[in-house]
Amino acid sequence: MTDSNAGNDPAPTVDPDETIDLLQELVRIPSPYFEEAEITEFVYDWLAERGHGPEYHHVSEPDITEYEGDNVLARLEGSDPEAPTLLLNAHVDTVKLVEDWEEDPCSGRVEDGKLYGQGACDMKGGLAAVMTAFDALSKRELAGDVLLTAVVDEEGPYGLGTDRLIRDGYTDDCDAAVVTEPGPILAQSEIENPALLLGARGRVFYDIEVRGKAAHGSQPEKGVNAVVDAGRLAAALDDLETGDHPKLGSGSVCPLKIEGGSQTLSVPERARLMVDRHVVVGETKETARADAERVVDELELESEVGIGFREAPDPGIVYGPYVTDEDHPLVTSLSEAARSVCGVDPAYGYFSSVGDFNYLGDRADLPTVILGPDGENIHGAGEFVYTDEVVEVADIVADAAVRFCG
Questions:
Q1: 149-180 per-position pLDDT tens digit
Q2: Which residues of 8-20 are buried (b: 16+ CB within 10 A; e: fewer)?
């Protein structure tokens, strides 16, 4: 792998005004998950107008969500088949529009270096950055390929866009990935950009059935109250001792919901408990199940308990934890690029939650780095992204791609 920036050939740079104009256009298109058709068409057209030969990649999940949508893909082909291929991944969707905005949630208003709008930070800022970086890279001769994937449904329950990329083999020839999610705001420790997040905890979602015994509500001792036992189990799981990892920190457990009981004067015979659990490297779905079963055994509940997990379209849809080695050539390339663009060494950190990067770093087994512009109020009213960081991320990605791909 060669460093194309070692000589006098400058790294590709993006046009700051074009990048922010693009971001404004993206933010002004409402794109809650499962409603991305307009924005995917915009991304496709933007790439096509610049001669990048984009293609739609269909995403279908008919059984649970009945979702139909399209990722947008584009590839820059390098000159050397033996050189590495870099994947640039960003999602086009946002959470559902929040009602508490005091202005148009898709305004794209710029004030004091901040651009406002639902999804401005998570992650249309990162999407604009990789799109303009990709365009800048097209003007350079690269040894390796660069694959841009603008994916749907990252914010939804299953990450169907990147899941489908993996299942359809698009990641098979890739050697590493950059995901431009906002990093510092969701890091486990306080860091500032430029920052490289080199891993993330994973997640399992318990869906637990508690089966008691019905009885008249005036004589509860004759029944077994499934709601009460579900509450005891929720409290015990809340205190569960989770794993630790030197980079990812500790796991966590958060009971989310108990459902059960509705009839007047009847002891509830059924309850359902849903529990979120973040896991670290070394913890798996199987170990998580064993932990919950151990807790149930220790409680000696009268109810019968079935430990399950949230229904998923495919058993392979799992947010596994991962860590990328600090010495990997992608990390080295991004670090050098950050020093070149920003004049400082980047901070290293680790993501506190989950996203498409888990699919890439764990399921696809790709060294994966999160690098994205920071902001505030992610998923809430008043969300904004720092415009200068959007441009910086674009420049770092473009510079690093040249270093990594040769």
A1: 999 999 999 999 999 999 999 999 999 999 99
A2: eeebbebebebbb
Cα–Cα dist 380/120, whole Å: 11
How many angstroms separate the CA atoms of 52 and 313, rounded? 33
Whether residue 369 contacts residue 179, with contact meaning beta carbons closer than 8 Å, is answered with: yes
Q: State the pTM of this model.
A: 0.94
**Token pair of 352, please?**
């506190």
Alpha helices in 306-345 (DSSP H): 329-342
What are the tens digits of pLDDT across the range 19-38? 999 999 999 999 999 999 99
CA separation for the pair 187, 197 (Å, rounded)? 8
Check if the beta carbon of residue 176 is closer than 8 Å to that of residue 86.
yes
**Rounded Cα gap, residues 160 and 154, in angstroms:** 7
Q: How far apart are CA 224 and CA 305, in angstroms?
A: 12
Distance CA(139)–CA(154), nearest Å, equals 30
Task: Answer yes or no: are the C-beta atoms of 95 and 33 closer than 8 Å.
Answer: yes
Q: What is the rounded (10 degree) CA torsion for 364, 33, 273, 201?
A: 40
DSSP code string of 74-126: EEE--S-TTS--EEEEEE--BPPPPTT-SS-TT---EETTEEESTTIIIIIHH
Are 235 and 225 in contact by the 8 Å Cβ rule? The answer is no
Q: Which residues, in sequence order, are CB contacts of 304 under 8 Å at separation 6+?
A: 210, 211
Question: Could you tell me the two tokens for 102?
Answer: 């005091």
Binning the chain into helix, strand and coil, the percentages to the nearest 5 are 30, 25, 45
